[in-house]
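Most newcomers find our protein records easier to grasp once they have seen one. Sequence and backbone structure share a record, each on its own labelled line. Nothing more is needed to start thinking about how sequence determines fold. As an example, a complete record with its sequence and its structure tokens follows.
=====
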Amino acid sequence: MQRLLRGEMFMLGGFVAAAAATILLILPQSIDSAVAQPTQTSSGPLSAADVDLLIKVRQAGLWEMPAGEYAATRAQSPRVRQVGKQIMDEHGKLDQMTRQTAAKLGVALPDEPNPDQQRWLAQLATESGPAFDQDYANLLRAAHGKVFGTLALVRAGTRNAEIRKFAQEGINFVMRHMTYLESTGLVNHNQLPEPPAPSPAPTTP
């Protein structure tokens, strides 16, 4: 009888352990699924990628506008000073558009650049002359390349009409800014990330 009871308790313990393990496996997936669910808005579902785009564009402006102010007093090249003013002015318009879109969709936006952007601003604040010109052109060109990829992917796949319109405008702004920066003649394209490798050709049966 005792042996039977011990056996039943052993089986019960194993069942409880297995059930607990199953819950631990399922629970994070359930939480992730809940977080990943898009928010319904009047302009369509708002996904995490849509929200991330608004945040990234907002933070881009929060460091590129001050960087443009630095260019006015620290750049040696007249073209860099001109580009700095153009980007600063256009980012002011893009930032207004970002805040308006975020307000329509109920998205909270940050009030300061991310840590990398703060570090880039601190670097530019210590430089002047040719060193500033070089770093300004290359830091901003690399940053625009990253946000351009995000804008393009969200524009291609978003289900939200407001985000689709915003991403389209953002692509136009960023394309212009990359062209401005490249017009300085200071961008080192060899330091930019490599384009993605092409997909392998399908094999013939």
Observations:
- The CA atoms of residues 58 and 143 lie 13 Å apart.
- The mean pLDDT is 86.
